[in-house]
């Protein structure tokens, strides 16, 4: 299988909006994007962007730039864990108000930018890293890089479904695995790939060596009602039926904040299902883990906890997803721990940013 929209960001956004007409503004920075690109559709001034700067060991060496659109754990783990390994000067561009603890040290300075493109033209970086061009900051940076020829990379930050956004043109994907690299590339010749592994899973594996996760306790179902990939009858119905049948607790995804999700949570509580706080970290929930296609299944497995997927009448892409990640169905042996490389992905990402190798 491949992406439903491997090339066109506009078509992918149309699909997103059609599935989430009331919720698609959740991550969008359309004001930022429209104003910075001069779009006539932008009706409000662009929010301020902040450029965080850290000097390198050699002030004369070319700098690198990291574009960050949000402070979610997956975003920070994917983009900012490379910082300790970078010896060159680093700029991090993010929207104002996005709190990034990694940039709080005395070696960092910050300045507000009202014209990001002008700032980039004045001091272009040697390389650029983002999560893609489907969010505001990433879109501005990749559009600019395409015009100027700056080397770019996109780091994979989660398990991939066919509904993932397309990659920017002329970039390098830093993928979790060879299979994910081929899947996300989807036959495009303008996209190069490099397998570096998952920083999220690498960290989980090494944390579990010093503090193994307990395997006892109540089963935890990882929610994904926020996603556009499955209809609500599946994303809400499957966990409801499973938790009622197996006595599992339900942990909502932190993005399950819309009215329909909140109503589903309330129904679960009325029917005796415990709904835990969505911000509760997975390591703090001490039971086996079940989900539909959550990355948390892999995280639990690499921590040594029993983990399964479940769901009847699943679309073909879900079954392909389970197979690509080695996820095992409820009722059989648990999902084996994903293989984790000896090299930390963050170090490999830093190496690619500095010298392209």
Total helices: the number is 13
- Multimerization state: single chain
User: Given this structure, which CATH class of the largest domain is correct?
Assistant: Alpha Beta
| Protein structure class | alpha/beta
Please count the beta strands (DSSP E, at least 2 residues each): 12
Topology-level CATH name of the largest domain: Rossmann fold
Uncertain ranges: 22-44
Sequence of strands across the biggest β-sheet? 4-1-3-2-5-6-7-8
Q: Give the percentage of residues in beta strands.
A: 5-15%
What is the gist of this entry?
With 357 residues, the chain is an alpha/beta fold.
Q: Could you describe the 3D structure shown?
A:
The protein is built from 13 helices and 12 strands. It has about 350 residues and is an alpha/beta fold. The protein has 2 domains: about 10-195 and about 345-355, Rossmann fold (3-Layer(aba) Sandwich), CATH 3.40.50; about 210-325, Rossmann fold, CATH 3.40.50. α2 (about 30-35) packs parallel to α5.
């Amino acid at each position: 299988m491949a992406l439903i929209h491997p090339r066109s960001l506009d078509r992918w956004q149309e699909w997103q909006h059609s599935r989430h007409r009331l919720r698609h503004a959740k991550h969008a920075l359309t004001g930022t994007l429209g104003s910075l690109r001069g779009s006539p559709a932008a009706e409000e001034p662009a929010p301020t962007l902040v450029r965080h700067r850290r000097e390198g060991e050699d002030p004369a060496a070319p700098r690198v730039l990291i574009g960050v659109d949000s402070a979610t754990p997956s975003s920070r783990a994917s983009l900012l864990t490379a910082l300790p390994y970078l010896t060159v000067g680093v700029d991090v561009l993010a929207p104002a108000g996005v709190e990034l603890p990694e940039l709080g040290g005395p070696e960092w300075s910050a300045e507000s930018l009202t014209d990001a493109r002008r700032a980039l033209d004045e001091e272009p970086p040697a390389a650029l890293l983002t999560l893609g061009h489907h969010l505001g900051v990433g879109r501005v940076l990749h559009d600019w890089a395409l015009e100027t020829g700056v080397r770019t990379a996109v780091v994979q930050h989660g398990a991939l479904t066919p509904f993932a956004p397309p990659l920017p043109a002329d970039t390098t994907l830093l993928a979790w695995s060879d299979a994910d690299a081929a899947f996300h590339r989807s036959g495009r010749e303008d996209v190069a790939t490099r397998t570096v592994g998952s920083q999220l899973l690498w960290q989980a594996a090494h944390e579990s060596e010093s503090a193994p996760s307990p395997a006892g306790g109540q089963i935890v179902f990882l929610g994904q009602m926020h996603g556009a990939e499955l209809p609500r009858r599946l994303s809400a119905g499957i966990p409801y039926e499973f938790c009622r049948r197996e006595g599992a607790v339900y942990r909502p995804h932190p993005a399950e904040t819309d009215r329909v999700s909140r109503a589903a949570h309330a129904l679960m509580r009325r029917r005796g299902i415990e709904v835990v706080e969505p911000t509760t970290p997975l390591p703090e929930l001490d039971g086996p883990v079940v989900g539909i296609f959550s990355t948390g299944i892999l995280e639990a497995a690499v921590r040594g906890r029993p983990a399964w997927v479940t769901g009847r009448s699943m679309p073909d892409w879900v079954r392909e997803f389970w197979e690509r990640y080695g996820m095992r169905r409820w009722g059989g042996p648990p999902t084996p721990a994903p293989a984790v490389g000896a090299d930390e992905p963050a170090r490999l990402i830093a190496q690619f940013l500095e010298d392209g190798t």
